Amino acid sequence: xxxxxxxxxxxxxxxxxxxxxxxxxxxxxxxxxxxxxxxxxxxxxxxxxxxxxxxxxxxxxxxxxxxxxxxxxxxxxxxxxxxxxxxxxxxxxxxxxxxxxxxxxxxxxxxxxxxxxxxxxxxxxxxxxxxxxxxxxxxxxxxxxxxxxxxxxxxxxxxxxxxxxxxxxxxxxxxxxxxxxxxxxxxxxxxxxxxxxxxxxxxxxxxxxxxxxxxxxxxxxxxxxxxxxxxxxxxxxxxxxxxxxxxxxxxxxxxxxxxxxxxxxxxxxxxxxxxxxxxxxxxxxxxxxxx
Length: 291
Hints:
This protein has 291 residues and is of the alpha/beta class. It folds into 2 domains: 6-245, TIM Barrel (Alpha-Beta Barrel); 250-290, no CATH class. Helix content is 45%, strand content 12%. The chain has 12 helices and 8 strands. Helix 3 links the parallel strand 1 and strand 2 (49-52). The longest helix has 18 residues, at 247-264. The radius of gyration is 24 Å and the shape is elongated.
């Protein structure tokens, strides 16, 4: 591994709890959240870092692609999550189109996530031309988490969600991208949908934390989408997802039982209603009778 640049040294120190976890060999747990209750659940579960991902486009707002969510929409969700998170880093995902055009636009967008939503860091996808964006955001004093491998914002059709790095050229490019992102000051990396061996090689080539999603167990931690983890979504579930609950089925069942109780006259019961003193009710009835 080549000696880190000044930017790389700054990046490694930007999210100290994650850097310390890597140094100790403690797996980092990152979970997405999109509002106050999901953030509170993530915090109570003991995760190390919360990501307000652009996956909100699909799982919260019902868009068909992560490319459709706007900065303003994601800021609303990020502010809500901020109110639910205390004492652990909150990372805001820069939406598609909000950082690619220029360094100045990238910094302005990142600044909004810090100033308006209280983020501790921002995440963006890709390397190449995006290295300049990372450099500019880091120079503005904002920690950045990079994202390599499968880049959802670059996928325009459903069949584009495929594992990356399965041939030598792709694998080498992913590793080179990760190394370059560290050199520009990224505080951590997310590597998505790549062979475990490739993710392990990348992790060994950089000194910053590498968090995997569909990248095996050779990284420094794992991230999953809240709705995937808890079975709240519908439709296709990625190969790398383990559902730890069937939350959608539980919630549907509860709503259905309530609807059945309403229609059958079983809800509300006495314990769900408020009483009025008999004399007050008598006065109301008397006065209504005068009208």
